[in-house]
Amino acid sequence: MESYLNTLVVLETERLTIRKFIRDDLPALHAIMEKEEVMYAWEHGFAKKETRKWLGGQLKRYRKDGCGYYAVVLKETGTLIGQAGLLKNEIEGKEFVELDYIFDNSYWKRGYCMESVKACMGFACEELKLKELYCLIRPENEASIRIAEKTGMKKTGEHTK
To answer: Signal peptide location in the record (predicted)?
Structure first.
């Protein structure tokens, strides 16, 4: 199993392995996504059925787009602590690549999100040769705004869903 998981690795940092999700990640992923505090941007914690659908969606994205949310795993323990990645998106006819991240609140304020975001940005610029990345962040999500700003991102506009 370990050699199979190694083929799924997309990025590594000092403390993190960033890899494609597998179906076996469902219990750990759901433990994160069922928390309202973590998923407030979606306005509710996810039921197991919603998490299963979300996971299936990521597996489809890998095949269709070549990217998606990736599992963020602590190297030291193998614990799934969140997800980060690159998502193809479109708003008002404009296609773009979105940098997105969701972390278990038990791991907030430890630098893991920033570490994974920097790794994803490096991958997007160096490997994928992207010139632009976007983050869609709710105005009240000050922590995510700070992360985006600390990585050099700037507000370019607003979008209402």
So the answer is: none
| pTM given for the model | 0.89
Report the distance separating Cα 55 and Cα 102, nearest Å. Answer: 13
Of residues 90, 154, 85, 118, the one with CA closest to residue 13: 118
User: Three-state SS across the chain?
Assistant: CHHHHHHCEEEECCCEEEECCCHHHHHHHHHHHCCCCCCHHHCCCCCHHHHHHHHHHHHHHHHHHCCCEEEEEECCCCCEEEEEEEEEEEECCEEEEEEEEEECHHHCCCCHHHHHHHHHHHHHHHHCCCCCCECCCCCCCHHHHHHHHHCCCCCCCCCCC
pLDDT digits (tens, 9 = 90+) for 61-95: 988 888 889 999 999 999 999 999 998 888 888 88
Domain assignment present for residue 49? The answer is yes
